[in-house]
Amino acid sequence: MREKNKDKNIIDDLKVTLRVQEAKKRDIGRNIARIDQETMDKLDIKTADIISLIGKKETAAIAWPSYPQDNGLGIVRIDSRLIKNAGTSIDETIQIRKVITHTAQNIVLAPISIKIKSNPRFETFVKRKLNNYPVAIDDFIFMSIGISREVTFKVISLKPSGICTIKPGTVLHISEEITEDNEGGADLVTYEEIGGLNEEIMEIREIIELPSKIPSLNSRFEIKLPRGILLYGPSGCGKSLLLRASSNESVAFSISINGPEIMRKF
């Protein structure tokens, strides 16, 4: 029989460590984590239960069964939003734990990099879109407003503490103060948003990400790192988007420079 931990959100201290893999296209933006049946049985997790993902930070996700081909591989598939909230990256390991969630009594969201005037109607609209959404403090929430606009919010206050679920009775407030995100949350471009460049993405990941994540590969296999990468193609094919995504995915510092900034006719 399971005993509750001192933390009111934690059922017990049982955790499972899994390796992070990218979500399939159909799961992006749904806040779900796909885990295999063996892990679900071990943690006594059922479909649609709320689970805790623990990387450098802790966040919440909705448990969902893995795809048949993923069974027994020891992986969890989550999208870039959950990867960011958990403070991890693809091919790194995170811990998964079952938790008991409570209804959020009060929650304060701060917009990232854009100013939004507090408005009861807009707050009601946001709360309605986030109904049954599990959140934790410092989570980033990405919300589509209109056809092509997305606004990023950060959870700056949450009562009670721990992992909570937003319900119709939750008092939600949007702060008028802008919060700056040093991790680039306002401009989160990921590989998920790039279509039709799967082969190019794989090559970029092999050249940029693997050597930085596993430095031993360089000496073991005598891999000589390239001094640079040249992307070429017609305008609008996704070169700049691909570089922005690789910078975000590899947590690398990047500077965007246009030709006229360094070369002029004078």
Write a structural description.
The longest helix has 16 residues. The radius of gyration is 21 Å and the shape is globular. It is α/β, with parallel strands linked by helices. 22% of the residues lie in helices and 25% in strands. It folds into 3 domains: 83 residues, Beta Barrel (Barwin-like endoglucanases); 82 residues, Vcp-like ATPase, Chain A, domain 2; 72 residues, no CATH class. It is built from 7 helices and 13 strands. Strand 3 and strand 4 form a beta hairpin. The model has no long low-confidence stretch (mean pLDDT 83). The strands form 3 sheets. It has a 6-stranded mixed beta sheet with strand order 2-4-3-6-1-5. The protein starts with 15 loop residues before the first strand and ends with a helix.
